[in-house]
Amino acid sequence: MSKMHTPAMEKIEKKNAKRKKPLNPTPAYESWKRFRRNPTATIGLIVVAALILVAIFAPLIAPYDFQTQDYAAMMQKPSAQHLFGTDQFGRDIFSRCIYGARYSLIIALFCTIAAFFSGGLLGIIAGYFGGKVDTVIMRIMDIFQAIPMIMMAMCIVAVLGNGIPQLVAAIMFASMPTMARNNRAAILRVRGNDYIESSEAIGCNQFQLILKHMIPNAVGVMIIYFVGFLAVSIMMMSSMSYIGVGLAAPTPEWGLILNDGKSYLTSAPYMMLFPALMIMITCFAFNLMGDGLRDAFDPKLK
Amino acid sequence: MLKYIIKRILLLIPILLGVSAIIFALKTVTPGDPARQILGNDATQEQIDAKREELGLNDPVVVQYVRYIGGVVRGDFGDSYRTGEPVLKEILPRLKTSGVITLGAVAIGAFLGIILGILSALKKYTWVDSLVLVISMFFQSVPEFVVGLVLIMVLAVNLHLLPTNGIENPLGYIMPMLCIGLPSIASYTRITRSSMLEVLGEDYIRTARAKGQTEHNITYHHALRNAMIPVAQSIGTSLGNSIGGGMVVETVFGVPGVGKYIVDSITQRNYPSILGGALIIAIVLVVINLLVDIAFVLIDPRLKTTIISGGASRKKSKPAAA
Amino acid sequence: MGERILDVKDLVIHYETDEEVVEAVNKINLTLERGEILGLVGETGAGKTTTALGIMRLLPDKVGHVIQGHILFEGEDLLGKSEREMRSIRGKKISMIFQDPMTALNPVKTVGDQIAEVVELHNHCSKAEALKRAQEMLAMVGIVPERYREYPHQFSGGMKQRIVIAIALACEPDLLIADEPTTALDVTIQAQILDMMRKLQRENGTSMILITHDLGVVAEMCDHCAVMYAGEIVEFGRTEQVFDNPKHPYTQALYQSIPSLDKDVHRLHVIPGMVCDPSNLPEHCSFCDRCTKKNENCAKHDPWIVDVEKGHYAKCFQYTPEWEGSAAAAGEE
C-alpha cells in the first residue's frame, strides 16, 4: 500500500464531503468566494452598504433639516436631542453628517466616474494603441503629474469657482495623470499576455479582442482602482473644503462641517470629532473593500 | 552616467514648459483683472490701464507667455501681485521650511512603513499580518488635515506638549511631519510586504539556506536589499504626494512654507506666485526623482549597465540572459 | 562495497494546502555509497526535487511535510536534527546545486561575497581568508579569479552555474545534490559543466546525487540509478543493470522513447496516457493505466519491490511469483 492517510487528508475529505453544492468555477464566483473569506473586506463592504443606505434614506434618518438654524440651541454638547451636538448656528451636527453622507458619496461617485472617463480612457487608449499615441499621451500626463494633485484641483476651483460641478471637474483634472497611468498599466499587463497574441493569430478582430479578452481580464484591476479612488476623492474633497477651496457653505459636506468647527477646536471639540469620524470610517471602509478586492481578483499579488 | 544625468535634466525642460503653459492657461481664463487686484478698488481707470500696460497684460497671451519664460531662464519668476517682491525671493526661504517638513515626513513614513512591511511579510497570514494591514490602512484613510486636528487636540490642547501652530519653536515641525508621514505608511507597508514576499520566494534565498545561513541573516542580508529596490522607487512618487499633502498641512498648522504660500496665492489669485511655486515644485520633484534613480545604482548593480548603455529604464531590469 | 553515506528509508513527503494534499514522495528507499554518484531519473513532477529538498530539510515552509521515514546521513538521522544542527550540515557536509543558475545567485552581491559567505559560515575564518578561498574556488571551476568582484548579471548562464558549483563545493562537502544542473543551459555548455562536475567529484571524492531527466547523462556519469514515477522509486540498480536490462515497464518505455540515430523512424515512441494526479493517487499500481503489461492484479493491488537480480530492484507484479499464476488464470478465461 503506497497510499498514506494523514490527518490533513481526512480534514480535506471531511470538507469536501460537507460541500454539497457543486462547485461553480467561474472566475467571478471564485473571486467572490475569496472576497467573502476575507473578514476585513467583508466589514468594509458592510460599512459601505450601510453608508449607501444612510445616504439614500437621509431625510428619514436625520431628525432635523441640515440647514435649519436654531439660535435657541447653539453650541450644545451631544445629548439625546442632538446626538452629535449643535454648531454655532444651532444646526444639528448629526443631521448634517447624515446628509453629508449623501453629498460626499454622490460627489465621490461623480468624481470617480469622471476620472475614469477622462484619465482612465486616455490610459486605456495609450495602453491599447501603444507607439506614438502612447508616447504623446503619457508625455502630457508627465507634465500634469509634475503639479501636485491638490494644487491642480485648487487652481481649477480658483478659475471655475466653488460648486459641485466645479469640484468634480477639478478632481477629475487633478487625478488624470494617476488614472491614466494605472489604467494604462492594467491594459499593458493584459496586452502583454500570450493569449492576446494567440487570439490575434486565430483571426479575432479588434472589437472582439477588446470586448472578449482585454476587458474581462483588466476589469478586476480597474474595479480595484475605482473603489480606491472613491476614498481618494472623498479625502481630497474634504481637504479642499477644509482649507476653503472646495464646496461653499452651507452644503453639509464633511470637510465643510469641519471647517465650521475649526474656530471652536478647544472649546467644542465634538463639533469636529463626528464629521472627522465620518470621513475616517468611510475612507477606511472603501480602502478595506478595495484591498479585499485586490486579493480577490489577483490572489498572486498577496 | 554623466550622459544619463544630462539627459534627465534636459527632459525637465518640456515638463517645465508644460507646467507653466497649464498655469498660464488657467490664468488667462480666470475672471478678474490683476491690475485692479494690485491697485485696489479705489484706483482710477487710468491707473489701471497704466498698470495693465506695465504688466504687459494687453499683449497677446502667447507674447506674455514667451516673455515669462524668457524671465524664468534668467532666474526671474516675476513679482508677486500682492507684495511686489520677486517671487523667487519669497519662495526660497520657504522652500527650506517645506523641505525640512517633507523630508521628515518621508523619513517617518518610510521608516514605519518599511518596518511594518517587513514584519507582516515575515509573519504572513498570521494575526500580526492582518493587524499591520488594518493599522496602515487606517492611516491611509485619514486625510492629512484630520490627523493634524487630532494631533492638535491631543498633543497641543490637552497635553500641552507641542505648540498648536507656527514653527518659531523647532518642536512645531513635529506635528506637520507626522501629519504628512503617517498617511503615507500604508503604501510603503504594502510595497515592502509584497516585494519582501516575492524576494523571499526567490531561488537565491534557497541557495542561501542551502549554504546553512541563518534565517536572520537571510532576511536582513540577502532579502532586504533586494526587496528595497521597488520601495526606494516608490519614494519618488511618495514625495510628490507629500508635497501635495504639505500644502494642506502647512495651512492647517500655519507653517510658512511653499505649500501655504501657494494656497494663499491661489485664494488671492496671485498668479506670478502660483506659477513660480508650481515651477519650483516641479523642478524639485524632477531633481529628487533623478537623485532617487542615481541612488538605485548603489543598491542594484544591474542598473549600472542599463543606465550606462543608455537604456534609462526605471523598471526593475531582469538579469540579461546568457 | 564502501561506506554507506546516505540511507533513505521509507520516506514519505506530502504537500498540504487547504485545498488538497499532494503525495509527492511515497515510501522511497535510497542508498548511496561514499564516493559514488547516484542518478535520480524521472519526468517532471515525479518527486525528484522534493526528495532532494527533503534530504536538505528545505521543504517549503508550512506546506511541505515529511510524514514518515528516516534519512540516515553518515549514520545519523537528519530528520531528528535541530534546525541549528541542520544549518551546520547544510553547505558544509551536504551541498545542493539548484536547477536554474539564472536565479540561484543573489543579484545585489558580488560572486566573491557569495562564495565567501559559505566559507565564512562553516570554516570560521576571517573575511579576507574566505575571499581568498572564493578566488581559489573560482579558479577551480574555470573562471578568472580576478572576477570575484563582479556581480552575477555580468556572467553568462554557464558561468553562473560554475559559480553555483563553486559555492556548493567551497567547503568540500561529503554529499553533493545536483538538481538538474544542466537543464537550463545550452546543450554545448551542458557537456562542459558535466565534465567539470565529474572531474571535481573524482578529485574530492564527493558522493553525489544527480537529479536529471536525461538518461544519457545518467549513463555517462552515474554508478547507480533510481527511476522515479509518481513519487515512487520503480526501479533501482547499478547503472549497467538498469540500462542493459530494464525491468520495470516504465523504464522500458522510457528507453523506447529515446530517439535513436541508427534507426529510421517516422514518429518517436511515446508513453500513452498521463501521469496520475499526485493529489489523488490510486490504491493500486500508479503506472497501471499506462502499462502495456498489466493484468487484473495491477488495478487491484499495489505491487511491492522485488529483487530481480543482485542489487537490482523493480516495483512490479511481473516479477512476483503471483504474476505467473494470475497471468495463467487470465489466459484461461
List the helices and strands and how they pair.
The complex is a heterotrimer of chains A (302), B (322) and C (333).
Chain A: H1 7-18, H2 27-37, H3 39-56, H4 58-61, H5 93-129, H6 131-145, H7 149-160, H8 164-191, H9 194-201, H10 206-242, H11 254-261, H12 270-297
Helix pairs in contact in A: 2-12, 3-5, 3-12, 5-6, 5-8, 5-10, 5-12, 6-8, 7-8, 8-10, 9-10, 10-11, 10-12, 11-12
Chain B: H1 2-29, H2 34-39, H3 45-55, H4 61-73, H5 87-122, H6 127-140, H7 144-158, H8 174-181, H9 185-200, H10 203-210, H11 215-253, H12 258-267, H13 271-299, H14 301-308
Helix pairs in contact in B: 1-13, 5-6, 5-8, 5-9, 5-11, 6-9, 7-8, 7-11, 8-11, 9-11, 10-11, 11-12, 11-13, 12-13, 13-14
Chain C: E1 4-16, E2 21-33, E3 37-41, H1 48-56, E4 64-73, E5 76-77, H2 83-89, E6 94-97, H3 101-104, H4 111-123, H5 127-140, H6 157-169, E7 175-179, H7 187-204, E8 207-212, H8 215-221, E9 224-229, E10 232-238, H9 239-244, H10 249-256, E11 305-309, E12 312-315, H11 321-332
Parallel strand pairs in C: 3-8, 3-9, 6-7, 7-8
Antiparallel strand pairs in C: 1-2, 1-4, 4-5, 9-10, 10-12, 11-12
Helix pairs in contact in C: 4-5, 4-6, 5-6, 6-7
Commentary on this structure:
- The complex is a heterotrimer of chains A (302), B (322) and C (333).
- With 302 residues, chain A is mainly α.
- Chain A has helices at residues 7-18, 27-37, 39-56, 58-61, 93-129, 131-145, 149-160, 164-191, 194-201, 206-242, 254-261, 270-297.
- Chain A has a single domain (27-62, 92-301), classed as MetI-like fold.
- In chain A, helix 3 packs across helix 12 (270-297).
- The mean pLDDT of chain A is 80.
- Chain B is built from 14 helices and no strands.
- In chain B, helix 7 (144-158) packs antiparallel against helix 8 (174-181) and helix 7 (144-158) packs across helix 11 (215-253).
- Chain B is globular.
- In chain B, 41% of the residues are buried.
- Chain C has 11 helices and 12 strands.
- Chain C has helices spanning 48-56, 83-89, 101-104, 111-123, 127-140, 157-169, 187-204, 215-221, 239-244, 249-256, 321-332; strands spanning 4-16, 21-33, 37-41, 64-73, 76-77, 94-97, 175-179, 207-212, 224-229, 232-238, 305-309, 312-315.
- The N and C termini of chain C lie far apart (48 Å).
- Mean pLDDT of chain C is 84; it is low at 327-333.
- The chains are: A mainly alpha (302), B mainly alpha (322), C alpha/beta (333).
- Chains A and B meet through helix 6, helix 7, helix 10 and helix 12 of A and helix 1, helix 6, helix 7, helix 11 and helix 12 of B.
